[in-house]
Amino acid sequence: MNLHELLTDAVADVEPRHALDEIRARTSGSRRRWPYAAAGAVLAVAASFAAFAVLGPDTAPTATDPGASTSASPSATASESAGPQMRAGAVYYIGETPDGLRLYREFAPVPVDNPLVGALTQVFMGDPQDPDYFTGWPPVDSTFLGAEVVDDVIRVEIGDPENLLEHDPPVEQYAMAIEQVIYTAQGRGAGAAARAVHPQRKPRQRAARPGDVGTARERRGAGDLGPCLADHAERGDARRQPRAVRGPGGRQLVRRQHRDWVEDLDGTVVVDQTPTIASGAYGAKLYPYEVTLDLTDVPPGDYLVVSSTDDPSGQNREHTDSRSITVVD
Amino acid sequence: MTTHALAGAVSADRWSADEALSALYAAHWRQLVRLAVLPVRDVGTAEEVVQDAFVAMHSRWGRLRDNDKALAYLRQAVVNRSRSVQRHRVVVDRHLRASSGRDPETAPPSDTRALDADRRTAVLDALGQLPDRQREVLVLRHYLELSEAEIADTLGIARGSVKSHASRGSAALRDLLGDVWKDES
Hints:
The complex is a heterodimer of chains A (about 325) and B (about 180). Chain A has about 325 residues and is α+β, with helices and mostly antiparallel strands. Chain A has helices at about 5-10, 20-30, 50-55, 75, 115-125, 160-165, 170-185, and strands spanning about 40-45, 85-95, 100-110, 135, 145-150, 155-160, 195, 215-220, 235-240, 240-245, 250, 255-265, 270, 275, 285, 290-295, 300-310, 320-329. Chain A folds into 2 domains: about 35-220, no CATH class; about 235-329, Immunoglobulin-like (Sandwich), CATH 2.60.40. In chain A, the strands form 6 sheets. In chain A, strands 9, 12, 13, 14, 17 and 18 form a 6-stranded mixed β-sheet that branches. In chain A, strands 1-6-5 form a 3-stranded antiparallel β-sheet, covered by helices on one side. Helix content of chain B is about 80%, strand content about 0%. Chain B has helices at about 5-10, 15-40, 45-60, 60-65, 65-100, 110-115, 120-130, 130-145, 150-155, 160-175, 180-185.
């Protein structure tokens, strides 16, 4: 026998039991699981009282707050049925761009009485609505153990550092995974002045340990956010009428042109929009923009709303974000 | 993210996570459990490991969106989780040994009938004595018959490391198996 035959023979009699039903039960219920154990590593996010308080206001930011654009449809996701009262909370995921990984925001139902844990659970479960987004955290069931606010510090507890280390994520992804937690925990994205306490070493060197205290750094801009975010382009049904598309535009040292359009599933553009320069001053800030796409003459059907920024460097590093919609009469 | 990629994503998005889960389960459940049995031995534990991998794959389907990628992810998750199970056992055994002053009793595998042949037991014992990476490379190469590139991708290591682990692992396994391998060759 060669080694292949030896190994194959060694497990040839193993006949696992049927488990598809169990797996289906777990996948249908996992999104509502709420781990609360109190052990493991601690990722502490220093936040001002204001930062904690914005866990609520993030669902209704002002148009003048750079980067604080509103949800796809916050009110639509609030639950009025029996059970925990829910509202929309901001959850940050990672998306790939020509310039590397960036954070993108979605809104998901979170319980009114504990939006912090609710939003962070979404981060660690990693099931964004947009198929282009993902979470940087590994699929370890016990990763997120809980979160609480103590004085002015948000403590996020992460379990089983060995398991995290086993997945050995790329350093860039690990860094963005931490940013996911910070942005989501603070409930406020760009422009929120806050300090983040990071584990000092990268995962290839050592996993976070209980009681880790890392280096504090000041967040000055929103360099981790995706430069283009069409999060006002709601998913789902859309009326055949003019429709607003807004986004924070992303951090940029020079102003970029935004172009927004609607295309069908074959990639044919059915509504185009004149390129727009985002408003705001130059600097390391987000530039909110808003355009209107007129769907009046668009036949009912499935489409993509696409928002794009150009690349002033001329290297074709255009950033694009999109939402699926269905145009109805 | 490019417009082209996004357009493609919408097309692939028509296959839901649930549909992908069912298809991948039907095609790979048994082989993946057997893959997990090689390092963890116990069939029940192996089933749990693979179940966890399927649940994780389901939650990430929005990112994977492709059967080949999903299968690669499943293999990677099974290997990683199997390694975690083994390391956890080492820690537990060490704790039991320290607290009781004697070696812990070895629990029989839940499916002893499948593992009771001397040769099979010898192979699994020998695999268990290899360093993690050597065992993982040998199993992926000689059980799943993956290429060096696929193994490197699954384990997140360089192809040169795959060769090195394969070479050392084969030599070590041959020594450990002794007559079992020599006699059967």
